[in-house]
Amino acid sequence: MKNEELAQHACHVRKNIVKMLTEAGSGHPGGSLSITDMLQVLYFEVMHIDPKNPKMADRDRFVLSEGHCAPALYGTLVERGYFPEEELWHLRKCGAMLQGHPDMKHTPGVDMSTGSLGQGLSAANGMALTAKLDQADWRVYVMCGDGEIQEGMIWEAAMSSAQYKLDNLTLFVNHNGLQIDGSNDEVMNVNPIDAKFRAFGWNVIAIDGHDYDSIRAAITLAKETKGRPTAIIAETIKGKGVSFMENQVGWHGKAPNQEQCAQALNELGGEA
């Protein structure tokens, strides 16, 4: 797929993130907007999936460990054809299919229920180890936040990934530098992220998480790496695409109002 096409999908997903959070009156725009470009590459180019058969046995798996960024995943699943766009407008409503965090039991295309930060890599390890034991070719991709890797469970899981040589597992670290209470440096310094993962036995690649060529190339290198898992440290902009949200910690978990929604949609190219 051409980069221009991926950009069109990403733009549509970002518009839907803004609209669904405005409709819900709550949610997490900052991180959702920052991971959107990586999701387009995964779901439109890389992952072996079938929207018409979401539980296909040999599909690649994706785990959104930073589950509060679910709006980006939901928007991408709609873009890929897993369920109708109409479902987005019921986000976070009682009884709706789409809740504030991913739910594998009720949402087509969601491979793991997440939300409690730090747990996703462990779940992904289990999936990747299953594929190894079954001698299956499918791969596992997992997305963590940079604030999330302050959780000790991440590093226990990282040891296990290396111990079992899970070269069919690729971890994206969404490194936008901000979390709910402030910058990573202020709350609990996570740097140097790359050196930490290398010390734990991982192959490490640093990229611009908004550059499609870099994302694509990193995933290719991850597939070619044998005997150890790969961590892709993706430098991103929190709130990417909306000027008043970009690099603003206050937009970690706050929904836009109608006026802000209109401005954001205008910046993203209009409502259509």
From TrEMBL:
Superkingdom, natural source: Bacteria
A Pfam short name: Transketolase_N
Cofactors: thiamine diphosphate
UniProt cross-references to InterPro entries, sorted A to Z: THDP-binding, Transketolase_CS, Transketolase_N
Keywords assigned: Metal-binding, Thiamine pyrophosphate, Transferase
PROSITE patterns: TRANSKETOLASE_1 (PS00801)
SUPFAM superfamilies tied to this protein: Thiamin diphosphate-binding fold (THDP-binding) (SSF52518)
Domain Transketolase N-terminal: 13-269
Protein family: Belongs to the transketolase family.
Protein name: Transketolase
Organism of origin: Megasphaera hexanoica
